[in-house]
């Protein structure tokens, strides 16, 4: 099974790697599963050719590299958006992109996402599971999501290392320092932020926002059944309705061998599944095993596998990308 037309992937330009400080919440040096994380346009196009991929929708997996510095965070967001927009403009049939925000700085983020979408042509906004320790259900994010609602935005959410702010310093909140976000620690943190969005009321209230949840929700399926313990019947129904109709589930990583079964157990329609390679965070030598797990997955039939690699993403981005 080959011939993916579109996917979600990451963009890590060399200038960004150069200025990324060691405490920015990413592995330093940038290493994933024993492989160096390297991105160039040439490598991206080669990866797409190897996988028969026509288009990549690019995002920056961890833009918050100058923690606590509002001006630097705003500047990095603008640089990343301008840089990725130039790439998409130069190769419009090969690349689209998600806007980088300046969260946790809410007003600045609204301005930046509006600019990236309205002026630069971004097809949505990319967020991380937390921004400087603030998860997406934080009350400070309400006005940001209100603007996303007005924009009828597509919001892609990628996991990030959990941070704690202690006496003005940011600390990685991980039980084992060896667990970087590209391995096991990403699984609970994508779940944590969506439970936060659900229980805060943000998720069910955003009736015009479509979320793309990476790694098919991480460990979210294992804890959805706990939602009724914290909510009343009507709230639970609204949350589950949002998961069923306004959340799209990106395959990034090796998630189809077993993990997908837990998600589909909640009657999530396969028509809301999307393909994402996680490249280069999932290094090129490991893309094929992830792909093969999709091809041999017992949870989908051939027509559903075909749809998740093309038709589903076309339906989600109708009117935003010219396919």
Description:
The protein has about 325 residues and is α/β, with parallel strands linked by helices. It has a single domain (about 5-315), classed as Metal-dependent hydrolases (TIM Barrel, Alpha-Beta Barrel). It has helices at about 15-20, 40-50, 70-90, 105-120, 140-150, 185-200, 200-205, 225-230, 235-245, 260-265, 285-295, 300-315; strands at about 5-10, 30, 35, 55-60, 95, 100, 125-130, 130, 135, 155-160, 165, 170, 210-215, 245-250, 275. The strands form five sheets. It has a six-stranded parallel β-sheet with strand order 6-7-10-13-14-15. Helix 4 runs parallel beside helix 5. The longest helix is centred in the first third of the chain and has 21 residues, at about 70-90. The chain is globular and about 50 Å long. The model is unreliable at about 20-30 (pLDDT under 50).
N-to-C span: 21 Å
Sheet of most strands: 6 strands, parallel
Radius of gyration: 18 Å
Under CATH, the topology can be stated as: TIM Barrel
CATH architecture: Alpha-Beta Barrel
Poorly predicted sequence stretches spanning 5 or more consecutive residues: 22-29
Average predicted confidence as pLDDT? 87
Helix content: 25-40%
Structural class by secondary-structure content:
alpha/beta
Shape: globular
**The CATH homologous superfamily:** Metal-dependent hydrolases
Number of domains: 1
* Beta-strand residue percentage: 15-25%
SSE arrangement, N to C = EHEEHEHEEHEEEHEEEHHEHHEHEHH
CATH class: Alpha Beta
Number of helices: 12
Question: Strand arrangement, largest sheet?
Answer: 6-7-10-13-14-15
Number of strands: 15
Keywords: Decarboxylase, Lyase
Domain Amidohydrolase-related: 71-317
Family: Belongs to the metallo-dependent hydrolases superfamily.
Organism: Mycena alexandri
